[in-house]
Amino acid sequence: MRVGFLGVLFSLILEAFVLYSHPTGGITLPGYTATILTVTFFGAFNCLGLGVIGNYVWRAFENTKGRPNFIVSSSIDYPKCLDYDFC
Known about the structure:
Elements: H1 2-24, H2 32-63
């Protein structure tokens, strides 16, 4: 998910640069600004969505490994009481 957030941040920085460069004459190619804005925006949110799904799948995988809920480090064997009056 961190990569998705970094992608969104990078996308916003690139979009700010492209939006600044277009009116000042830095970008003269027609359609370049709209294409770059669209591709970076949807690409970044695609990475973010894949990060969320990957996080969910990883947690599901960790929960289905069949590991015990706890590990017994030591146990004490008490003698069994056959007389229930004193137990």
